[in-house]
Amino acid sequence: MQAVTIPEHRLKEAERVIRLVMIAILLTAGTSKFFSQGGFQEYYFGQFQADLRISLPPLLVGAYLAAIPFIEIILGISLLFTRTRVPAIYGWFVFMLSLLVGHYVLQEWSAVNQMLDYFVLGIACLVLPCHKSLLTPVLWTSES
Fold this sequence. Notes:
Layout: H1 8-34, H2 39-48, H3 58-78, H4 85-105, H5 109-127
C-alpha cells in the first residue's frame, strides 16, 4: 500500500480556509454582541442567576460577559496576521474552553458537546502549515 502525500500548498490552503472560518466566527459574534444593545449581556446574566448547581459571583459573570465581544474581536483580528497566528490560536482554545465551562455551568449539555467542533478547528489550524501571509495568492497547479 502506497502512502498518500498531500502537497504542502494544499495543506496551506486548508489552513487558510480554516483560519478564515475562525476569523468569520469571531468577528461576526463580536460585532453582533456590540450591536445587541446589551441584549446579549442581559440574557446570559439572567441565565447565570437561575438556580444552578454551580453558582458564580454576579460581578465575575457581568465582567466576563462585558469582555466577551472585545475578546472575540481581538482574537479575530489577531488571526488575520501570521505573526500573531499561534498566540491567537491558543487564545481561541482558552476562550472556547471558557465558553464550554459556561455552557456546563448552565447545564446546556448539547452546547457543551457542540463546542468540541471549535476545538477541532483550532487544532487543525495549529498543526497545518501556513502561508507567510493570509493574503498570499493561491498557487494554482496541475497537481490534485
